[in-house]
Design brief:
single chain; 313 residues; 2 domains; two-stranded antiparallel ribbon
């Protein structure tokens, strides 16, 4: 009787040992092994952007689970915390709030270079951006022009040239004997591009144009606008006009920083800002792709340029 009882005990112990080894079988490249209580390792609720399918799941087939866990487009209107568009539209007040400077228990949110862009990469949307994006949301400043120049040299000059004349190293036969570039870069000094709206430049930076790729992932929101400021300064220099923090005789749109009494006044939604004597709708018709009626004289003989010494537009 005692012998039978001892045998039973041994059998039970052996069964537990075998079960333990079976539940912890080693994994390999093609076999994840057997898991003891798999729900201890795998989340019962599926997690977005995280693929963790296993054979004992209760969420359907592997294909169905992959579809559930796959990344999706954010909800329309979604913006990241601290996105740069807030600082451009709200000025110093929003910057202080993002840095936690308005209350004792506020949480500081690093300002990033992201901002929503509502125009798709199509020719119709390019035309819409050209017509609607008129005002540069940042004033002309010495620091901004310096940043814009540095970024222009890095990303733009090799094609468009240091002077903006479309004769960069890739197409300059004098400095580059192995020129084989398939397209002629745009000449920013031409009447067409001097007359073009800021939106035409911004959309090209975002999505690219022809053989030029987009730079949305390389330049932040503010950096794109500072590059556009620098391009405008090249145009002004070529025409012996002024485009600086104290004066702008190139166009009626971009505002010298010296004229901006309060950042909150300038940093609003650009679509609802009236920068000068012409309305937003007027600008929309004045800055299209066509160059008819956009001679140098038609832009600079209106008497509405910005001069710092006058203190008004």
């Amino acid at each position: 009787m005692n012998y039978s009882y001892l045998t039973l005990i041994k059998a039970i112990i052996l069964a537990f040992v075998v079960a333990a080894f079976a539940s912890c079988s080693p994994s390999s490249a093609d076999n994840p092994g057997t898991e003891y209580m798999p729900d201890m390792y795998h989340s019962i609720a599926y997690e977005s952007n995280y693929y963790d399918y296993y054979s004992n799941n209760t969420w359907g087939s592997e294909k169905e689970y992959y579809k559930i866990a796959a990344p999706r487009e954010p909800v329309a209107g979604t913006v990241p915390r601290g996105y740069a568009g807030q600082t451009a539209q709200g000025g110093t007040a929003i910057k202080a709030a993002l840095k936690g400077g308005n209350t004792l228990n506020a949480v500081s949110v690093p300002v990033n270079g992201s901002v929503p862009y509502a125009y798709a990469n199509t020719e119709d949307e390019r035309a819409r951006a050209t017509a609607e994006l008129i005002a540069n949301p940042f004033p002309i400043t010495d620091d901004g022009l310096a940043v814009g120049k540095e970024l222009y040299v890095i990303f733009c000059g090799i094609c468009h040239g240091d002077k903006g004349n479309g004769i960069g190293y890739l197409v300059n036969e004098e400095s580059n004997k192995n020129v084989k570039y398939p397209a002629q870069p745009a000449n920013f000094l031409s009447d067409e591009f001097v007359a073009a709206s800021n939106g035409r430049y911004y959309h090209a930076i975002m999505h690219g144009k022809n053989v030029m790729g987009g730079y949305a992932d390389k330049l932040s929101y503010e950096e794109r606008w500072q590059v556009i400021h620098y391009i405008r300064s090249l145009q002004a220099k070529d025409r012996k006009l002024a485009y600086s923090s104290s004066e702008n005789t190139l166009n009626e749109v971009d505002v010298p920083g010296v004229l901006v009494a309060s950042p909150e006044v300038l940093f609003q939604d650009p679509e609802h800002v009236n920068w000068g004597p012409s309305s937003h709708d007027d600008h929309g018709s004045d800055h299209g792709h066509d160059t008819d009626g956009h001679s140098e004289g038609s832009h600079h003989e209106t008497g509405n340029s910005y001069h710092g010494e006058q203190g008004q537009h």
